[in-house]
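Job type: complex structure
Entries:
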Amino acid sequence: MATKAKRTPAPKRGTAKKKTKTARPPVTIERRADGVALVWFDDPDDKVNKLSTRILDDFNKLMDELEADNEIRAVVWISRKPDCFIAGADIEEFKLITSAEMGEKFALDGHRAFDRIERSAKPQVAAIRGVALGGGLEFALACHYRMAVRDEKTVLGLPEVKLGLLPGGGGTQRLPRLVGLQHALDMMLTGKNVYPDKARKIGLVDEVVGPWALDEIAAAAARRLIADRTALTTRKKNLAARVMEDVGPARDFVLKQAADMVRDKTRGKYPQPFKIIECVRVGLEKRNGGGLRVRGALVRRVGGWPGVAAARQSLFRDDREEKTPRGEGRGPREKRRRARRRPHGRGHQSRHRARRENVGGPQGRRAGAAGARAKSTSSKRSTSGSSENR
Amino acid sequence: MTGVAGRRVGFSGDQMAAKKPAAPRVAVIDGARTPFLRGGTDFNDLMAYELGRIAVAGLMHKTGVDPALIESVYFGCVMADPSTSNVAREITLAAGLPKSVAAYTISEACISANQAVTNAADQIRLGHADLVVAGGTDITSDVPIRFSKRMRQKFIRANRAKGWKDYYAIFKDVRPADLAPDAPGIEDFFTRMSMGESCDRMCKRLGVTREEQDEYAARSHQLAAKATADGVLADEIVPVAPPPKFKAVTTDNGIRGDSTKEKLAKLPPAFDRKYGTVTAGNASFLTDGAAAVLLASEKAVRELGLKPKAYIRSYAFRGTDPQEEMLLGQTYATPIALARAGLKFQDMGVLEIHEAFAGQMIATIKLLGSKEFAKEHFGMSDKIGDVDYDKLNLHGGSLSLGHPFGATGARLVTTCANRLQREDKNTA
């Protein structure tokens, strides 16, 4: 295949999959003469790329092809869509997940796919231009090297918690290893956006690059990795991080602090943040796969929790979440439903309580509530594209 | 420096009458420049105004025009020394021109001297002046390195201090970091990108390869070396005898005639060290130098019996997007200048384009020859024109001769005028 700079290369037809409705497959492989294979995402049926079951089903075949070809010595994952790397899992498909078993299977399929990337002997580079959120970022986390483009559209994050979910593709395991416990909890428990320069600073990406000829740049990085695997950057922990992550009691203290903070802000109404913390804890303790299995089990447990159906619904009206009073993060329909079912239910009580506290309650609680509210508006602002980080 | 290199000065030869009869013509009598030296070499001990003085004095000597007749002096300068902030005026006085001469300094990045020349031409067209000197000067060996903002504020407050107690109060919290100097970088204030980074970014966007750049840079150096050896450049150079040794410098010292594509290919990228294609070899270097041009009205030409080398026919300047189009000003300005002159690109007999970077030149050549570019930006049905290498920068360019930011425009005008005469061409 051509090695010359191509800014808008024509899609290569028929190299990867033929199962799709349209002529153009969502994933195509471009083999370069320098031993780097570019795997292009470009969903022909959508404005964004998503990790759908369609992609996951074919993923093993794709990896087989990449692994078997001895000409290919490194792989670059890249998107043809200028605004989107991978926007995340296909949440429309979540509607179809009706049982805990289905949920677990979906999650474990994802894990297996990401694990294959991570364990590959060939260097795997994620070239991120545009949004890489949720499953999209987790995909990138499984790669060996991540580069992000410094432009208006590129943003990274694990916003699952805002949708009433957990980062389901290994984010709870790989993120703390990469950016450290503190940043990882911050990202996962708030679901906030991280912009390229900040991402570079905390170690979420290895490199920030300019917007043009990303394929050439990523291929150059991949060639460097072929020549020298040690070119991979490894996180240097500072003393505080080392103590926080590697010393049992210190770690437990940090996690407990995080849990307390979450409880304070959510008033304990959401199970997901605590599950995230639990996954991180187990992951750090076991270091190896333990957390993923726990996560699978937790998915089952969370799946069985009655609130999940509602949480899943709230997925599809995420924008309203920010507008609810006091940042409680509950959609209006959910509130109505609960109110109908339990006229004096917790929803009402907590609202009264909150109001009381806002008037005359202890200073700390007030500050906490105000803080949560502020956080929710500020995260809203950053979602809509403005960039304090830049 | 910060900026958009935009340049396109159209000339018509002596014999070719302008199609639009109305505007009076502006004659380019002659140009002169100091040798262009790499920063930190023989001009190390000079100031920008001294180089400018030498260029102007040399120009006066060369043209034989009585300095008392000069009415205005406009000079471009980018790395301005704060002690000679209106360097044009210092040059005027130092070169022995009348004290009544009005002088101002222009800072418009790499096109400062072009702006000086066209402003002068406008003054002549308006009938405000008959003889004007325009040029530019820059010394990169000596740039204003400042104290940090915090320290500057302290010094300014200290001006008003009364007694040691005040001084103590002001300076007691000085930290070592405050003493770190603040050196000006050749970067754009708006985008915080250096010119080299901008060029790298543009090369990636337009698919300009390292090989193309190195090949072009080698060409520039080889042509410049040949022009120097043939004595062609000596026409425009005024020798300088700089302190401390006062040994005459007569030639440019940045030209590497032995440059080849292969040698240049070995250099590491200078800006984007990992993925960049711009190297020290295919970019213009920091240069000390000055250049000046004498412009005259037709009345002055008649009365003084001057022999113009060229006439300024039209010009255009154009700002571009500092993120993506930095360094491409000349590309955008070319069709405008051509339209104003009623000429086509193919009509040009001589082409001189400023070479800030080889990558920028390749990009310019690509875009000028691109139908899509002409259509998208100018609604033209055809491309602006293919650049003929047999007409382009035949005596080297800024890549090889050097690029004193403020002065380059005047050198280009001088070279254009000389080439029109020597090659017996009509338009440039």
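Summary: Residues 363-383 of chain A form the longest helix (21 residues). Chain A touches chain B through 14 residues (CB under 8 Å).
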